[in-house]
Amino acid sequence: MGLSLKARANPLSSASEQLRILSNSNGFLPFEQKMSAAGLFPLHATGITVFQINVGKLCNQTCAHCHVDAGPDRKEIMTRETAELCIRALAQTDIPNVDITGGAPELNPHFRWLVEQARALGRHVMDRCNLTVLLLNGQTDLPEFLARHEVEIIASLPYYRAAQTDAQRGEGVFEKSIEALRKLNALGYGKEGTGLLLNLIYNPVGAFLPPRQEAIERQFKRELEQKHGVVFNHLYTITNMPISRFLDFLMATENYEGYMERLLNAFNPIAATGVMCRYTISIGWDGTLYDCDFNQMLEMPTGFGAPQHIRDFDAARLHKRRIVTGNHCYGCTAGAGSTCGGSIT
Questions:
Q1: Residue 343 lies in a domain
Q2: CB neighbours (10 Å) of residue 137?
Q3: Is the peptide bond before 109 cis (omega within 30 degrees of 0)?
Q4: Biggest alpha carbon distance in the chain?
Q5: What's the domain range around 106?
Q6: Could you read off the pLDDT of 195-218 as tens digits, one per residue?
């Protein structure tokens, strides 16, 4: 489907308006009923292995598909006080993975402190990086910082060709991304035996599901190495969620109902059992707790008696909590499934 994915001047900004659109089933089965028919409702967490911290919506890019609605003008930034509450809560657990995201998380003034503190606790740290942030003034030493602390970099790159990447992220972004990837490779990132993991994220450019992860990974590896001398470890495919700017795109191009029907028809019960909300706790920039980053953007905090703020963090109550769901959850359960770590099946 050759659709032009462009960020609109006035994207949907109200979480309540997005929820209204998503809650109107338009003839398709609500997600909770689909899960019930599969014997999977209500959905419960299986224990937390990922402590995801969204440090804010500030970003040096304005990507057309961004579910965070991030950009250079966003003022939502995690404070040092909230960051300290996150580390204090983390220290009370044995949760092995810390996933730092944004926006461009590196632009938060407390990003490096969070990395240092989490590593001091012996946790594996992941940085969800847009690559071009590594070239900004004041961030040129960031690759070395990340390598020194053995931070896994999960870098978003829409495609291995400039036209598709720039269409989604802005003119010239592809070349800057390649420059950043070369800097990371020079430090050992993406190379076998270094322990420095460099993984890429692929989102489809348009209203369709991603291809098989293994196949698109082979294409990315071949094209990036042969044409640009760039290597990486793995590629993760993520389904575009029908929220925020992508929902606005679907509505503006009259593709919303078709896309939702596509997600529903591709519902996979096996994928539904492995969705990331079952093993992740997501902390918003203001300390509010969510089952996942997508619920966070729809302002759907943890529910059913679970703690709702990092100051009240209680691992025992959160480990087996009931998950808050909605029709947007079809995005994570379609086809091979979709998580922040790629496909499920």
A1: no
A2: 5
A3: no
A4: 53
A5: 15-333
A6: 999 999 998 878 999 999 999 999
Q: Would residue 6 count as lying in a domain?
A: no
- For 42-101, give the DSSP string: S-B-----EEEEE-BSB-S---TT-TT--BTT---B--HHHHHHHHHHHHTS---EEEEE
Q: What is the DSSP string of 135-178?
A: GSTT-TTHHHHHHHTTPEEEEE-S-SSHHHHHHHH-TTHHHHHH
pLDDT of residue 2: 37
Cβ neighbours of 179 (radius 10 Å): 15
Contact in structure between 79 and 284 (CB atoms under 8 Å)? no
Domain count, the chain: 1
Q: Give the pLDDT confidence of 26-61 residue by residue, as tens digits.
A: 778 999 999 999 999 999 999 999 999 999 999 999
Burial of 247 (0-12, 13-18, 19+ CB in 10 A): buried
Contact 108, 77 (CB under 8 A): yes
pTM for the predicted model, two decimal places:
0.95
Element spanning 296, H or E: helix 293-297
Angstrom distance (rounded) from CA 236 to CA 238? 6
pLDDT by residue (tens digit) across 56-82? 999 999 887 788 999 999 999 999 999
Q: How would you class 162 by CB atoms within 10 Å of its CB: exposed for 0-12, middle for 13-18, buried for 19 or more?
A: middle
Residue 2 lies in a domain: no
Residue showing tokens 């579910």: 67
Query: Residue 271 domain-assigned?
Result: yes
The enclosing domain of 116 has a CATH number of 3.20.20.70
Cα–Cα distance between 35 and 179 in angstroms, integer? 44
- The helix/strand/coil state of 198 is strand
Q: Please check the confidence at residue 6 and state whether its pLDDT lies above 80.
A: no
